Amino acid sequence: MTKQLAFYDDIQQIFDQKELEEILLNKSEFCRVYAEEYWLTQYHELKRKSLTTHVPSITSFLSDSPSSPTNQNNSKIEDYALKSVNAGEKIDIFDKCLERLPEEFQELIRKKYLQRRSDGKLYEDAYVYDTLSLSRTQYYRIKKQALFEFGEMLYTAHYTHYVT
Fold this sequence. Notes:
The protein is mostly helical. The protein has helices at about 1-15, 15-40, 45-50, 75-100, 105-115, 125-130, 135-164. The chain has one domain.
């Protein structure tokens, strides 16, 4: 606790209250956008890629054109396998972070972003908050907080996963 207070005192010497609020607001907005744009809108595509077992045909061909400058062979099979593995790793990160959220956040994210209607489109906000028995105000407040926490977890998990 005293470390946190000392950290806060140090930060106050660098930034004033208004600057601190702006930084925190920017972080909150970044996390929400990161969760929505980078992860949730790409979820179904990542899921499809992670489950793809289709391998392109293996046929050799002769060419008069020179090989690549690095003389490295590009294998379509390896490319497909790598894309599938990378997508699978991202889905694992996504699932682990989603499981760590509070139940009401998980339910909201699943209904809004992961479940599809019969025509393949995502559900509208109004349908989701009616289904969850929330008022419009409660829904948007919870959605904002859920996206912030989810985005923060995803960013941290994704960054540390690929750095270590």
